Amino acid sequence: MKKHFNLWSILTIATALLLTVPLWVLVSFVFEPTNENWTHLADTLLPEYIINSLWLMLGVSIGTLLLGIPSAWFISQYHFVGKRVFHWALLLPMAMPAYIIAYTYTGLLEFEGPVQSALRTLFETQTVNLWFPEIRSLGGAIVMFSLVLYPYVYLLARSAFANQSHSVMQASRTLGAGPYKTFFKVALPIARPAIIAGLTLALMETLADFGTVQHFGVATFTTGIYRTWTGFGDTTTTAQLSILLLVFVTVLMMVEFWSRKQAKYFTNPNQQSNLTLPTLTGGRAVGAFTLCLIPILFGFILPALQLLDWSINVASTSLNSEFFTLVWNSFSLAFITALVTVSIALLLLYAKRSQNNKMVDHSVRVASLGYAIPGTVIAVAVMIPFAWFDNTLDAWSRETLGISTGLLLSGTLFALIFAYSFRFLSVALQSIGSGLSQIKPSMDESAKTLGASHWTILKRIHIPLLSSSLVTAFILVFVEVLKELPTTLILRPFNFNTLSVRAYEMAADERLADAGLPALLIVITGLIPVIILSKLIGKRHA
Amino acid sequence: MKKSWITLLIFTLSMPVYAALDEVNVYSARKEQLIKPLLTDFTRQTGIKVNLVTSKADALLKRLESEGLNSPADILITTDAGRLHRAKAANVLQPSLNDNMKKLVPAHLRDADGYWIGLTTRSRMMVYAKDRVQASELSTYEDLTDPKWKKRICIRSSNNIYNQSLVASMIAHKGESETARWVEGLVNNMARKPKGGDRDQVKAVAAGQCDIAVVNTYYLGQMINSNDPKEVAAANQVSVFWPNQSDRGAHINVSGIAVTKAAKNKENAIKLMEFLLSKESQTWYAETNNEYPVLADAPWSDTLKTWGEFHGDGLNLTKLGDLNTQAIRIMDRAGWR
Questions:
Q1: With contact defined as beta carbons under 8 Å apart, do B46 and B73 qualify?
Q2: Which among A201, A514, B103, B286 is least surrounded, fewest beta carbons within 10 Å?
Q3: How far is B158 from chain A (nearest CA, A)?
Q4: Which of residues 191-220 of B touch A (CB under 8 A)?
Q5: Which of A54, A50, A151, A141 is nearest to A99 (CA)?
Q6: Per-residue CA distances from A354 to A17, A108, A426, A442, A454 (Å)
C-alpha cells in the first residue's frame, strides 16, 4: 500500500510543521556561533549537570516502573478488596505538581519538621547528629518525581495489560508457566511498548523540570538552561542547550525504537470483555492491596494532608469567590487544550498509520519532542515567532491598508493553547499511539477492501477500539495543563490567573502555607475528570 | 461546554484591544499578592483601570523585546535593579522620571538617566543563632571567609538573583580576583550544600544546622509575622546583624519601576508611578511585606523598627546589572551550587 503524497499526508505534514514552529525557532539558534558562556559552562558545571541528570533519569525509571507496573498488573488481572477505588485513585498523584509535592515533603521531613522533631523527642536527644536521610538531595528528587510520575506507567501499562487477550495468558498457564513466569515472559513483553511510552513521558517531564530540582539544590541540565537564560540573559546559548537536550532525548527514543523493531504484538481486545477475573484472597489480597496503597499513600494522601493542614491552620488567604475564577480559568483552559491536543494527535497518528509515508512518520516523531523541552524555553520559543508574525502583519497592513492590526496573537489565550499543544502533544501521541499499535493492521485492510474510506475506518473501527486510549490521553493532557506552570506564567494574557500560577506565586514568595489552597484545588479540579473518565473506562473493561 | 468555548473565543478576540481606554497596562515581576492591592487602590482613586500580568522578570523582558513597539505594556516592575538595567540596555524602556520623583528618591536608588526608579529597598543582611554566636564576633561580609566560621554558614543557591547581586556588589567594591577568593572562602565555610529559599536558611540556623545565614530582610519579616507558629519560633531564635557598618554598609537592592518605550498610556503610567511613591503606598510596602520605603517620611513597620536603622551600601545599583554575568561565573568556578 505504498502511497505518494496526497491531501491527507500534506495536511498532516503541514500541521506538524506549524505546531513545531517553536522547535524550529530553537533550531535556528544552533547555527549562531557559540559564545563564551558555552565555554564557561563546559569548563565548569556542564559535566555535573549531565551526571546529575543521568542519575535522576535512572532513579526515576526504577521508581516509576516499581510503582507503576505491579499496581497496573493487579488492577487489570485480578479482583481484590479496594480494587474499585484503587483503579482510579492510583491516578491521583498525577494531579500533584512535582514542585508542590517537593515542598510538602520538605515540610514533613526536614530537620525542623514534625517527623524529625518527633524522633528527637522519642530518643530524647537535641543533637544535630541524629542521622536522617536528607530529603533535599538527588535521592529525594528521585523519590518525588517517581511518586508523581508513576501514573504514566501505571495508566498505559494498565490498559495494555487489560487489552491483552486472555487466551494468550491462558495458553501460557496451560503450558505450565506459573503466574510469575506468565507475567515476565508473556504479559510484560506484550505490554512493553505501552510501558516504555509511559516511562518516556515520565523521563521527559523529569528532564524538563526546574522547580523541584532547584528547591532540592540538585543542578541538572535544565538548571543549566535556566541559569544561562536568567543569569547571563543569553537566549542563544539557552536555545543551543535546549537543542542538545532534545538530541539526547531523540537518541534515546531511537535506541528504544530500534530495539523493539522486530517485535510487534497485536491482540484482539474484544475477546476478553466477557471473562471474569480471578479473585485474590488472604495473603495475596493483602499483598495486592498494599502494593496499590503505597503509591497513593505517599504520592497523594500524605502530601494532600500537609496541604490541607497548611490551608486550614496557617494560610493567611482563605477560600473566597476569587478562587472560583481561578478554578474556572484552569478548568476551561485544560479542557480546551486537551480537546485540541487529542484531536491533533489522532490526526497525526492516523495519517502515520494509513499513509505509510516516511515524511509523515518523521513529522510525527518531531512533533512529539515538545514534552522534553523545559516549559520556559517553549514559552520563549512561542513568543518570538508569534510576535514576529504580529509585527510583520501590522507593518504590512499599516503600509497597504493604513490600519494597525497591533498584536493579534501575542499575549492571547490562543498563543498559550498553541504552546500547550506543542508541549503536551507527546503525551497524547504516546497514549493514543500505544493503543493504536495494538489494533491489527489487518482490520484496516479488510475495511479498505470492503470499500471503507479513511474517515469511515477512523470513525467505525479505530475510535471505538481506541476509546479508552483517547480518554487516557484526554485525562493526561488535561491534568498536565492544570498543573503546568512556566508556559502559563510567561504567555498568559493580562488579568488572567490560574490555580498553578497562584500556587507558584505564593510558593516563590516562600509562603508555602498560602500555596497550599491553590495546590489543593489543582488536585481537586484534576480529580473530577480523572474519576469520571476512569469510571467510563472501568465500565468497559472491568 | 459550548459556552466555555464561546466565552474563551470572545475573550481571546478581545484581548489585543487594549490601550485607548482610560487604563494602564502593567508587566510585573512582583508577585500578584505584593502589588495587586495597591493597584486596586489606584483604580479606586483615579478611575484608571489597571491590567496586570505577573511573571518572571526575564520572561517579561523577553516579551517586551519581542513585542517591540506594538507591546501593550506601559509599565515594567521588577524586584531587582539588575533586571531594570538589563531592560534599559535592551532598549525597551524610556526616561520617565520627573523632578518631583528625583527629589523624593535618593540618587543611588534610581537610574542616572531617568529610566527607572526604586520603589522599595531590601537588604541582604546576616542572621545569627542567639545562643551560639555573639554579635561581637560578626563584622563584615568579607569576614565570613574566616576559618572560625567553618561549616557554620547557610546561604541559598547561586541561582538566586539576590546572591548574584551580592557577589556583583562585592566585585564592584573589591575587584574580581578578591571577590573570587571571597566566594571560595564562603563556599568552604558553608554548613551544607545550598538548598531551599531564604526562610529555609533561617530555619536551618534555628535548628542548629548552621550558626549564620545571609538572607533578605523581608523574608525574616514575613516569618516573624507569620501565622505559622513554627516559623515565628524559628525567627525568634535568630538575631539580625547589619554587616559592614563601619565601611560601605550592608548590601541593598531595590524593587523598581519603569515606563516602557512602547507605552501608549504614558500619562497614566506616570500617575501610577507617582501613586506607588506616595506616602500611603510606601507605608503599605513596609506594613505588608516589611520592605523599606524609599520615601524618607514613610513610617516603618514595627518589625523594621525593632531591627533599627542601618547603613546601606550607597553603590549605584546599575553596577549590579553590569556585573551580574561576572558574578555568576565566579560563583560557578568556586562551586557555589
A1: no
A2: B103
A3: 9
A4: 193-200, 203-204, 206-209, 219
A5: A141
A6: 19, 52, 20, 12, 8
Distance CA B270, CA B258 (A): 9
Amino acid making up residue B266: K
Please, are residues A375 and A485 in contact by the beta-carbon 8 Å criterion? yes
pLDDT at A364: 87
CB proximity B151 to A under 8 Å: no
pLDDT value at position A537?
63
User: What span, in angstroms and rounded, lies between the C-alpha atoms of B276 and B76?
Assistant: 13
How far CA A254 is from CA of A236, A425, A529, B183, in Å, comes to 27, 18, 34, 43
Q: Which sign does the torsion angle of CA B223, B225, B227, B231 carry?
A: positive
The lowest-confidence range among A53-62, A141-150, A163-172, A354-363 is A163-172
Rounded CA-CA distance A319/A308 in Å is: 12
pLDDT tens for residues A522-542?
Answer: 988 888 877 776 676 665 544
- B227 three-class SS: coil
Closest residue in chain B to residue A496, using alpha carbons only: B53
**Is pLDDT of A172 > 80?**
no
Place of cell 482610560: B22
Which residues lie closer than 8 Å to A456 by C-beta, 6 or more apart? A447
Interface of A with B in 198-257 (CB under 8 A): 214-217, 219, 223, 226-227, 229-233, 235
Average pLDDT over residues A23-29: 92
Name which of B157, B204, B333 is nearest A44 (Cβ-Cβ). B333
Instruction: Determine whether A199 is exposed, middle or buried from the number of CB atoms within 10 Å of its CB (0-12, 13-18, 19+).
Output: buried
Closest C-alpha among B154, B128, B126, B147 to residue B216 = B126
Domain locations in chain A as residue ranges: 7-22+36-266+281-311+321-541
Domains by residue range for chain B, with CATH: 2-121+253-299 (3.40.190.10), 122-250+317-334 (3.40.190.10)
In angstroms, the Cα distances linking A118 to A115, A124, A222, A245 are 5, 9, 36, 43
Model confidence band, residue B19 (pLDDT cutoffs 50, 70, 90):
very low
For the segment A454-472, the average pLDDT, to the nearest whole number, is 81
Which residues in chain A have Cβ-Cβ distances shorter than 8 Å to B63?
383, 387, 410-411, 490
State pLDDT tens for residues A310-321: 888 877 777 788
CATH topology of domain A7-22+36-266+281-311+321-541: MetI-like fold (1.10.3720)
Which one of A77-81, A246-250, B178-182 scores highest in mean pLDDT? Answer: B178-182
Q: How far is A284 from chain B (nearest CA, A)?
A: 42
